[in-house]
Design a protein that fits this description.
Layout: H1 27-33, E1 41-44, H2 59-72, E2 75-78, E3 94-96, E4 99-101, H3 106-109
Parallel strand pairs: 1-2
Antiparallel strand pairs: 3-4
Length: about 130
Amino acid sequence: MFALTSSIRKLPMPPKINIFNCRSNNKDSKSALTQMREGAFIISSSKPIKDDDNNPPCWGAKHEYKASLDKAKGEFFCTGEYPNEERQEPLIFKLTKKGPQPPSKKSESIAGPAVIVGSTKEPVYHGKK
């Protein structure tokens, strides 16, 4: 067994990059948002974004993202709010020839109990018993 820790130098951690700091108005960050392609997605991998002082995630940033996405005909997703805050589900994009496709809206509209499908047939055994 080899111990690599002695040969690895410790590098300083890079500074945290925050596109939107709720206390500042960064022109470079806003400029980056104007360069998105049509149909772009912005995904916040965070808890639900609320209009309060508990940042991050920042309520103001969410609205900046959404405003930029409106121009690009894109969509904003927050993993802590998908499909809703009470019942979160994985955010799954399909990769197709036309590019990534957003999650189906189907799971957002499901209401009521789940349906369980069963069978009354006896099991059929294959091979040795």
